[in-house]
Design brief:
mainly alpha, elongated
Length: 115
């Protein structure tokens, strides 16, 4: 078995790395689009810095934007703590709603008027 030794700074090493293969990039059969429609989508996207804000952002108020910025600046642990707090709040609201519905049932305020 014969081992070849290349010196990293020699012209032989660099010339051994050259490829003289000719590739025709014009053929769609040789270079198909990996994900159909991506090229058209990328062309249709405009630079968000120079364009107007997206539709979903146009409906936000200043308080909403401030909340997004605040949530975006939280660490993962702080964000998880915030989510846990929201889950607890939703649970407490569910309990309170259940109590109020039961109360309304006992007071007969939820029945439909008889005709």
């Amino acid at each position: 078995m014969m081992l070849m030794k290349f010196s990293p700074s020699g012209d032989d090493f660099e010339s051994s790395l050259l490829s003289f293969e000719k590739l025709d990039r014009a053929s769609p059969d040789l270079w198909p689009e990996q994900l159909p429609g991506v090229a058209e989508f990328a062309a249709s996207c405009k630079n968000p810095i120079t364009d107007s804000p997206p539709k979903w952002m146009a409906e936000l108020e200043n308080d909403d934007i401030d909340m997004l910025k605040e949530l975006g600046s939280l660490t993962t642990a702080n964000l998880m703590e915030k989510v846990k707090g929201l889950q607890n709040l939703a649970y407490q609201l569910g309990l309170e709603e259940s109590r109020e519905m039961t109360r309304g049932k006992f007071l007969n305020i939820l029945e439909r008027p008889k005709k």
